[in-house]
Write a structure and sequence with these properties.
Elements lengths: L4 E6 L5 H14 L3 E5 L6 H10 L5 E9 L4 H6 L6 E6 L7 H8 L8 E2 L4 H16 L3 H24 L2
Parallel strand pairs: 1-2, 1-3, 3-4, 4-5
């Protein structure tokens, strides 16, 4: 039985395609999740409410993806003690570097785990959320090991196919 679920937030509906990569990884692990839009700047009350109520709604980890100023993950982390994983998204003239710096530069005591910019970051956020949840779910830990083994096998097969 899976303990906990993951809340996936994004700053704009236009981020949905990228953040679905996190949803797909979580689904592969059998981890329930919910995805919604909440903007740190355009809907701060909604963002605050989602973050403050996440724990009592049964969430154990929050993934927050945002671009440009990318304050979503930090605003969420300020309102909860649940682990928050920030996914910097591209979309500005700076190609996501601005979002990366905004997400990773948190003050001491209010951490946000930060992953790569974009789709790979969304995928890694989900893998990290799974690892966090696996601390209390040994069967999930075995699924993670199986996924890692399959990835290693795919590399070995690719290496064999090279001339």
């Amino acid at each position: 039985m899976m303990k906990g679920k993951v809340l996936i937030l994004m700053g704009s509906a236009s981020d949905a395609e990228t953040m679905r990569a996190a949803e797909e990884v979580l689904s592969g692990y059998g981890i329930p999740c919910e995805m919604t839009v909440a903007s740190a700047h355009r809907s701060p009350g909604r963002t605050q409410s989602l973050a403050r109520n996440a724990e009592k709604e049964g969430f154990s980890v929050i993934i927050a993806g945002a671009g440009a100023a990318a304050h979503l993950a930090g605003c969420v982390a300020a309102e909860t003690v649940l682990p928050v994983i920030g996914v910097p998204l591209s979309g500005s003239a700076l190609g996501g570097i601005d979002a990366l710096l905004s997400t990773v530069q948190m003050p001491a005591g209010v951490p946000v785990a930060t992953v790569a910019v974009g789709k790979a970051g969304a995928q890694n956020a989900a893998h990290l959320a799974a690892q966090i949840l696996s601390l209390s779910t040994p069967k999930l830990r075995e699924k993670i090991r199986a996924v890692r083994k399959a990835m290693a096998g795919a590399v070995e097969e690719a290496a064999k196919r090279l001339p």
